[in-house]
Here is the input.
Amino acid sequence: MLAAERRDHLLGLLAREGKIVAKDVAAQLGISEDSVRRDLRDLAAEGLCQRVYGGALPASPAVVDYAARQTVAPDGKRKVASVAAGLVRPGGTLILDGGTTALAVAHALPHDLACTVITHSPTIAAALLDHPRAELFLLGGRIFKHSAVACGAAAVEAAQNISADLCLLGVTGVHPEAGLTTADVEEAAMKRALAARAADTYILASSEKIGTASQFRVLPWEKVSGLITDADPRDPVVEQLRALGVVILAD
Here is the structure.
């Protein structure tokens, strides 16, 4: 089989099965695992898969820059945001992550809601400036421009001194095996720090992130209270997550 044919086979397998197991592909095609791994390295370099131990998973499309992400699945993000905003109780304290889905949550919060919002995102804080009864706390640190959020040691240290009823956290990848992932190691650490300071943490994930993975794990499933998504409840990945005991909230 030519290299181009192997490439097409691997991409087709990824689309159908949602994962590639290198040793199984090698056996099916009668080639070495090293050949399969080389092919996967090439696909990963093009952003077409996320390599993991033993094979590969679909790569998340949510790794483009912040401005471009605002045009990705806006309807899905609004649906997720509507459900997420309904979890915020009057008088409660919310940790709201950065990113475009979290920004949709900020826009979905009732204008007259009395609550406290803690965020490490200047864009989230700015979006809530005209909410007269929302108390805002902005955590500082080095700004990671890709997501318009503060990250790094200073931001993590600031996060360790807060507490909240609810944390709404964004990720770029949602997968039954890989867990909850994102593309930057410092951003992943910041998300863990935020989640650790809330009684309940819910993941915000529009449908294009379901079944995909990025490089760095944020949290395992047992560390979150549930997933908020607009994905079809009959989606095989959603069914797998439900079978794992993941609480799924949908519009």
Notes: Residues 3-17 form the longest helix (15 residues).
